[in-house]
């Protein structure tokens, strides 16, 4: 492989990519012992069968019943509504000029374009449009 190409993930053969490159940078920045401790904590957080006290690494049994799908959906729906309301409020402030930077530049345009792209992904998934549209038979 040449290491140069249109794909941002194209690298020389044998060179670390993506997550591996991030892990190497983290390892260099924090040191091997802190990275190992962080990895252990992340693994314990990912395992929903128990909770770990990260200060003493003593396992604590879960004292609450696991939530049902309906409860998890309702919890996530509430968070989604809060996020949507916060975004709507901020966009209104931008339209009114209250939260807009004094002098707009192309960086602001790029930020807003990324915001639109992210919202489009969510909208397409919610309404079955774009890549989430049902295929025509």
Number of strands: 2
**Alpha carbon gyration radius:** 22 Å
Shape: extended
How many H/I helical runs?
A: 4
Low-confidence stretches: 1-12, 45-53
Strand content: under 5%
Strand order of the largest sheet: 1-2
Q: Report the end-to-end length measured between terminal Cα atoms.
A: 40 Å
How would you characterize this protein structure?
This protein has 137 residues and is mainly alpha-helical. It has a domain at 69-132. Helix content is 57%, strand content 4%. It is built from 4 helices and 2 strands. The protein has helices at residues 18-30, 32-46, 69-96, 106-127; strands at 51-53, 58-60. The protein has a two-stranded antiparallel sheet with strand order 1-2. A hairpin with a 4-residue loop joins strand 1 and strand 2. The longest helix has 28 residues, at 69-96. It is extended. Mean pLDDT is 74; it is low at 1-12 and 45-53.
């Amino acid at each position: 492989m040449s290491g140069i190409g249109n794909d941002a993930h194209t690298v020389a053969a044998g060179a670390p990519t993506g997550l591996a490159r991030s892990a190497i940078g983290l390892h260099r920045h924090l040191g091997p012992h802190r990275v190992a401790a962080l990895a252990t904590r992340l693994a314990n957080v990912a395992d929903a069968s128990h909770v770990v006290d990260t200060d003493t690494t003593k396992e604590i049994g879960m004292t609450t019943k696991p939530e049902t799908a309906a409860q998890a959906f309702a919890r996530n729906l509430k968070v989604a509504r809060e996020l949507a309301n916060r975004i709507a409020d901020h966009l209104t402030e931008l339209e009114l000029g209250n939260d807009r930077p004094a002098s707009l530049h192309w960086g602001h345009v790029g930020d807003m374009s990324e915001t639109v792209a992210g919202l489009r992904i969510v909208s397409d998934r919610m309404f079955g449009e774009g890549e989430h549209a049902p295929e025509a038979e």
